[in-house]
Amino acid sequence: MKLKVYLSGEIHSNWREEIMAGAEVLGLPIEFSTPVVTHEASDNVGVDILGAEQNNFWKDHKAAKINAIRIKNGIEHADVVVIKFGDKYRQWNAAFDAGQAAALGKSYIVIHPEEFTHALKEVDAQAMAVAHTDQQVVEMLKYLTLQE
Q1: Is the pLDDT of residue 147 over 80?
Q2: Cα–Cα distance measured from residue 82 to residue 65, given in angstroms and rounded to the nearest whole number
Q3: What is the helix (H) or strand (E) element at residue 8, kind and residue range?
Q4: If DSSP codes are grouped into helix, strand and coil, which group holds residue 111?
Q5: CA 10 to CA 16: how far, in whole Å?
Q6: Are 75 and 99 in contact (CB under 8 A)?
Q7: Mean per-residue pLDDT, 11-30
Q8: Are 106 and 80 in contact (CB under 8 A)?
Q9: What mean pLDDT value characterizes the chain?
Q10: pTM
Q11: Do the beta carbons of residue 139 and residue 129 sit within 8 Å?
Q12: Which of these CATH numbers, 3.40.50.2300, 3.40.50.1980, 3.40.50.2000, 1.20.1250.20, describes 3-36+76-144?
């Protein structure tokens, strides 16, 4: 049986690739899914499909709605959700994804720098685990898929 893991959160680093590569090296039975991580594609999906907008609010609104379909589906179908808060920009969307995972009763793991601990205390309090490195998440996934 494959563990289904949804990788949510910041899109400004290659953390997803590092976790997926670490799992692959270990031969872990994991099926990964992600949101669209190309910033331009994510931001422009609404206007690319539904047409141009003069007001940025409506451009963002269209994109957010379409992206939400993929994100909600990814979280709902995951066994475990991994949510990374990076140090570039504030990831309000990551906090929302953590809340959605908690509301759906999904087990989730948070990754963030130690200096974010106070700001994310409520998010951390609902998490099953809080990691500070991508490698710690790989080790958790190894343990979760351990066959004895």
Answers
A1: no
A2: 22
A3: strand 3-9
A4: strand
A5: 10
A6: no
A7: 96
A8: yes
A9: 94
A10: 0.94
A11: no
A12: 3.40.50.2300
